[in-house]
Amino acid sequence: MHIYKREQIAAKVKLDSAALEAVEAGFAALGRDEVAMPPILSMNIAESNGEVDVKTAHIRGWLRFAVKISPGFFDNPALGLPSLNGLMLLFSAKTGVVDAVLFDEGYLTDIRTALAGAIAAKHLAREDAQRVAVIGAGVQAELQVAALRLVRDIREVHVHSRDASKAEAYAVHMRNQYGLTVTVHNSAAAACAEADIVVTTTPSREPVLRWSDLPKGVHVTAMGSDNPHKNELEPTILASADVLVVDRLSQSRALGELHHAPALQREVFELGSLIAEGRKARSSAEQITVCDLTGTGVQDTAIANYAARLLEEV
Amino acid sequence: MHIYKREQIAAKVKLDSAALEAVEAGFAALGRDEVAMPPILSMNIAESNGEVDVKTAHIRGWLRFAVKISPGFFDNPALGLPSLNGLMLLFSAKTGVVDAVLFDEGYLTDIRTALAGAIAAKHLAREDAQRVAVIGAGVQAELQVAALRLVRDIREVHVHSRDASKAEAYAVHMRNQYGLTVTVHNSAAAACAEADIVVTTTPSREPVLRWSDLPKGVHVTAMGSDNPHKNELEPTILASADVLVVDRLSQSRALGELHHAPALQREVFELGSLIAEGRKARSSAEQITVCDLTGTGVQDTAIANYAARLLEEV
Predict the structure, then answer these.
(1) Residues A67, B52: C-beta atoms closer than 8 Å
(2) Gene3D superfamilies in the record, alphabetically (chains A, B) (predicted)?
(3) Together in a domain, A291 and A302
């Protein structure tokens, strides 16, 4: 059995095309119905403002499956610790024996989450998309943009955050780190006005994006909501979008954006099905496409296998 | 972070009164409604005749909670490997940081499962119980009897197993290991005829015990069923017992004996509630008491904390 620490993992696994292909293969397998993926195990620890989620999936024919344990303890910053944490374990899919423990402290979750946003944009955004609006200014606000650069020629970032000082710091960092043109806006509407791609990356419990904020031809990825209380998109967006996609229907209904639009009657695609079928969901440059990402166990099994392969290379 | 292997854990954690008290404290907390315990995560891996279960629970006020991952791969014996496996992880209940990993390979599950049987008998069997009937001849057939010795003056074991040669081997082992009088029977009815306590320890999908097999005054613990397909007790037993107890109602209904008696209308106690309230459920020496155990996350959190305390002692 091999045990790997965050530093070792981060030295090998990067936001690059190979990692994107690994996660995309997981979505495609899901779309081909080749994946066993039970509902998420979720426990609240109210006394510490904490929660722990466990996700898993097995892709038929793969030699190993991952189980990921993700604690989120939201009073940690006051203790000088990050809120998010966790590890992934790889088990033999033939014997159930533990094969590797990846003490990634949430690093691989950050990566596979950002890559899912890139995969959504790859299949849904206009080919010529250059301008990204980002709502929120945390870790994913950076990583989503970094991952989008793998699939589109991103030039400009337009950011809005409730916390203006965080947005300013984000802008400085993104200019220095990626050489992007970054503009801070004082509203989501202003940030989105000329966007080709919008990514919402907040833990908001109230919509941060309205239908009226969205220009023609935009693609929207909402990646913040992962529990029943969180909600980033006004339900009108789900109803009015030309194309609506989710990572997993059952999860989006239970803890994603669909949870806040229970009466919605329309066609909803799963991202994996679009990939598996090679279907072009966007049929014109004017259409508005929307993808809700809740985070799936198949991404964890895909990225953990990918990480282990890199770590095991001699 | 500390990592412990099976040998280290088995050297410290024994089937003794201290371990029993630790698990009983977990049940009592559950009975006082002081436990967060989400439904079990369960995934099947059909291509390898395997499954993986994840259980967790947090006891309010405790410093650490456990997450247990239990793979069961039932073609393993043909490969020279045990079917059951797994590990427990202890996390800080304040920060979510991993504190210890117990690579116990299912050892602690065996222990806490046997102790739950002893705890059920402690609270439900007659004080003068001496004769145990055991249905099945596997690991739990031994450990349930060993654990019962902590709470009752067990003298005789009456065993029945579908596989007669396993029952004979079991009898030899139990005589040598524990100095017990052990008799092998060719039916469950014969094994139970004069029993004070009956324990069913099988993975059967058909009842192994009939109401007509049970003598007056007996206590029955059914610990084998832990998925919707398994079933050890004829539903009449659940309907006719004077006292019916389960470890967790929601679990017994979903994957225990209550799953096979959906129309049952009667009072059902949870074991933890009896303990928490100090209630004597048995009111006469003639009553028949029944307890269905499905295995709960609170037992895992209790035994993992207990094990870690012993392992951390200098």
Answers:
(1) yes
(2) NAD(P)-binding Rossmann-like Domain (3.40.50.720), ornithine cyclodeaminase, domain 1 (3.30.1780.10)
(3) no
